[in-house]
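Hey, weird one. I pasted the Aminotransferase sequence into the form twice and got a warning about non-standard characters only the second time. First submission, copied straight from the form history:
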Amino acid sequence: MDTTNQHSDEINAAIYVTRPFLPPLAELLPYLEQIWSNRQLTNGGPFHVQFEQALCDYLGVEHISLFANGTLALITALQALRITGEVITTPYSFVATAHALLWNGIKPVFVDIHPDTLNLDPDKIEAAITPQTTAILPVHVYGRPCDTDRIQAIADTYGLKVIYDAAHAFAVEDEGGSILRHGDLSILSFHATKVFTTFEGGAIVSPDAKTKKRIDYLKNFGFADEVTVVAPGINGKMNEFQAAVGLAQLRHIDQALAERAAIDRRYREMLADIPGIRCLSPPPSRRHNHAYFVILVEPEYPLSRDELYLKLRENGIYARRYFYPLISEFPMYRGMPSARPAGLPIAIDTAREVICLPIFPGMTDEIRLKVIDIIRF
C-alpha cells in the first residue's frame, strides 16, 4: 500500500539521511556575547579549553586535542606517530580515510571487510603485511566497533601502530568503556552529518600527555612557544565559535542519542517482514550511537538497490548509498594492486547493496512511515 500522498505538508520537502541537531539559539547567545566581549576568537581560547575538558569527562578519556575538522585531525595523527611506507586500511569508508594517507606520502593497502560488521576483516590483515607496513588504519563503520582485540594482537605481533578512524563513533562504548581508548590514537569528526556536531570540527584522542602535546604543536604550525617551531605543522585549530557550539550540544546529546535509538527500533520492527531488505544486526557494543540506519537491498527484493534509491529520491527522501563507490574505485586508487576487485568481494557486494535511510533527532513518525511505505511499495 502506498500512502505517501496522504502525509502532511511537513514532509513534502526533501528529507535527508541526517539533520544536525542544533541547540536552541537562546543557549548560544551567551557564548557569542562572551566571545565578542573578550575578543579571543581562536588559538586555544577559554571555550576551547572548556570544551576539551567537557569532552574528556563525557567520553571517559583523558586527553583530547580539538581540530577544525576530522580530516585535518587524521592527517595530523599520522604525522604525530611518524607513519611512513604502507598502511593497511579499508576500501569501505569515506574518501578522507585514504586521502589522509596520500597527503602524508603513505601508500594505502586495501583489505576486504567482514560481511557482518562491514569493518576491516582481521582474517585478511596479516596477508597484506609487508616489510613496508608501519600501521593499520581501521574504521568503526557506522559507529559499529571493530574487532579491536584481534587488530591489536596483530599489530603487537608485527610491531605496527594502530590509528582508528572513529569519525562515526562518538560516545560508543564496549564492555571496557569508550571505544576511543583503543589503538595508539583515535580520530573523531564533528561534521554536520555526525551525531555530535560543531558544524565542522574534529578531535584526536591520545593515550598520554606527551602525545597530546606533540599533536597540539602540530595543529598550530609546529609552534612550541612564541618563538620556537619544533615541527612542520599545519593550521588545524578549532575556533571559539565551534567550541561554543560543542559545549551547547553536549547539554542535549543524551536526548539526541535516545531519539536515534527509538527510531532505529521502529525501523527494524517495520522492515523485518520485507523480503530482500536486510538490516544490519545491532552491534554488540555496550553503548551504540545509532549514527546511521543501514539496509542492504538483496536479490530477493523486486527492485535493484539503485532503483529503490531513485524511487526514494523521487519521493523526496534523499537516502545515501553510503559507501558507494568504494574508495578503491576512484582514479587515484584503482591502479593500486590492493584495489583489484578480486581481493575485495565483500566490500564490492556491500557497496552495490547499501542504502542509509534517514535517522535524526526530531524525525517524526510521519517521515518514517513515508520511508517505509516507499520501500514496501
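That's the output from the first submission. The warning seems to come from a hidden character in my clipboard, not from the data itself. The chain has two domains: 4-22+252-376, 25-250.
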